[in-house]
Structure formats: C-alpha cells, structure tokens
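At your convenience, could you comment on the folded chain following this short note?
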Amino acid sequence: MEPNDVPHAPTPDEIDELARRAREGDRDALEALLTAVRPRVLHVCRGVLPYSADAEDACQDALVNIAAKIGGWGGRGRFTTWMHVVAVNSARSTYRKLKNQATPTDTMESGPHERPDPRTTSVIAGTRLDLLEAMEILEREHPQLVEPLLLRDVYGMAYDEIAAHLDAPLGTIKARIHHGRKLARPLLRGDA
C-alpha cells in the first residue's frame, strides 16, 4: 500500500458478499466481515449508551452475536440492516444489565446535585436514557411495537428497510411505529 493510500470501506454489496461467504462457513470472510462492520456496530451502541466503555462492551457482545448467529441472516435484505438490529439488541441488553447492577448512590456523601439524573440527561446522538426506560415499559405490554419504533425513530432506518428486515408489510410497520409513538409519548414526558 502506498503511503497516501487510504483503505477503502467496503460497499454494501461487498459486505453482503462477505456475509454470504461467512454464513456458508468461510472463517476468513467472517473475520473480514466483523472488521468491516465494527465501526457501524460501535456507532449504534454509542447511540444507546452514554459511556464509551459501556458502548465498547455492547459492541463486543454484538460482534460475538453476529458471528454466532450469522445463519439467522436470511439474505433477503441488506446484511447491515440485520446487523443493525443485532447491535441495537446488544446495546439494550447491556443497558438492562448495567441498570440491574446499579446501586443507588448515597446523596449525603456525594451531594444531591453532583450527578445528573440519567433518566433525563441527553446522551450521544440525542438518544436519552428515559427513552430506554420507556421502551422497557412499552415492551412488556406491546413487544411488537418496540423494534420498529427504535429502528425508525432512534436509528433513522427507512420504513421499507424495517419492513424487509421484520418480514412484515410496509403498512403494518408504519401502523406499529405510529401506535408505538402514541404510547411512548406520555412515558417520555413522565406522565406514566
């Protein structure tokens, strides 16, 4: 490689081809695929988790899940769409794990205003931890609404990509997102 050469990022078609080969058992293709998608996976995780170390942990979990579940990618849509969902789920799982491990801080020692309230503090990319709390509540009663809502409103995926990934009609996806927004609004305002 010449000193001025910059390694090129694989195109979506090249990533899909690596994924097909990896799905068929090609270990070199799997390694190349994981290397190629790692920056995207980390970006997704950083959109959910406010601290870099937590996002890195979630990214590693997502890459392990991608490698283990590569056979779950059907090949109908883009691999990156499927990968995005795996990354979102890994970040949400890491968030749940961290939330369950957290212990309340003693406000007498640290003072009541030294630490911002994580439920209302904006984090990277405008995602808020209160959104994750709202999705946890929504998932208990309406699990079919959460994934399309997160993919559209947090990650900006196109409706047709979401429909292809979830193997659902476009109208159904739009209706789920609309209904999910309606149910999530009061949770985000703290009206619940």
About this structure: DSSP finds nine helices and no strands in the chain. Residues 106-127 have pLDDT under 50 and may be disordered. The chain has two domains: 10-102, 128-192. Residues 138 and 146 are 7 Å apart (CA to CA).
